[in-house]
Every structure is written in structure tokens, then in C-alpha cells.
Write a structure and sequence with these properties.
Structural class: mainly beta
Low-confidence stretches: none
Number of strands: 10
Number of domains: 2
Largest sheet: 4 strands, mixed
Oligomer: single chain
Helix content: under 10%
Number of helices: 1
Strand content: 35-45%
């Protein structure tokens, strides 16, 4: 299984660090799916599709044209694997925002961040950065209180 992945735009290369194979370099080849009455592939919504390699990313109606190079390559290389990396480490990140004036949208992210919490399973560690304008923080975790976002 892979441990890390990075895309190098200049050389159009995806770099993968794999537990068994080591460092792998793969030339990125984008593709998408276009609606076709005689398509060989079926989308989740039942639409018949053909795989295309020559397409404009702005073309309307394409399926999977917006997948980034890292994700596309990992999907192609590790689709059938449920293995975890032998050097895996699971970290959970929770970001909270102010909702006093309504819930924000991900597109504009207009609300102020009120806290960021990280839980690292490897060391059973918890870290919290909290915007606490009243400077009242009660917790047994590692906490850094901040006066501004």
C-alpha cells in the first residue's frame, strides 16, 4: 500500500511511496467519461458512458473530469486493495466555525474558525487550538488558546 503521493506539474509525474515497491514514478494520463448511447461503462445514476482521453475539463456533462492527478493515479493503482500501509498513521482533524449568523458554505468559508482539534492515534495525543475570546479553557488535552483566528 502507498504511504504518500505527490504530483509534479512540471514533469506531469505522480510520485508514489509504496511500502513494498518503494518510490514509484508514473506519468499522469488524465481521462474522463462522456455520455454515450453505446457506452461500455455505467455511471452510478445508470447513464451509459465511454472513457475519453481527449477532452476539455470545462466541457459540461463529463464524469470524473475533475479528479486530481494524485487521486486518479491512486484509484487506478490501488482500487482492489483494502490493505493499510505498514507505516500508516491515523490522524483525525476537526475544524469548528462560528455559526451564530448561520452555517457557512465550503465555497466561501465566510465564518470565523473557533477551534481546530487533532487526534493522533499513534501516540493517543490530542491537540486543540481554540479561539477563546473570554480566555476560559477547561480541558486535560494539550491546548493553545488564541485571541484571533
Amino acid at each position: 500500500m502507498y504511504q504518500a503521493v505527490a504530483y509534479q506539474n512540471k514533469t506531469n509525474t505522480v510520485h508514489i511511496w509504496d511500502d513494498v515497491k518503494g518510490h514509484i514514478q508514473v506519468k499522469y494520463k488524465p481521462y474522463a467519461y462522456r455520455k454515450s448511447s453505446y457506452g461500455k461503462h455505467i455511471a452510478l445514476d445508470g447513464t451509459k458512458l465511454d472513457k475519453v482521453t481527449d477532452f476539455d475539463r470545462e466541457e459540461q456533462g463529463l464524469y470524473e473530469s475533475d479528479i486530481n492527478p494524485e487521486t486518479r493515479t491512486l484509484i487506478d493503482m490501488y482500487t482492489d486493495s483494502d490493505d493499510l500501509s505498514t507505516g500508516h498513521r491515523t490522524i483525525f482533524i476537526d475544524i469548528e466555525v462560528d455559526i451564530e449568523n448561520g452555517f457557512p458554505t465550503t465555497e466561501t468559508a465566510q465564518n470565523e474558525i473557533t477551534s481546530i482539534a487533532i487526534y493522533d492515534q499513534a501516540g493517543d495525543s490530542r491537540y486543540v487550538w481554540s479561539l477563546d475570546k473570554a480566555n476560559v479553557v477547561k480541558s486535560t488535552d494539550v491546548i493553545q488558546s488564541c485571541t484571533t483566528e
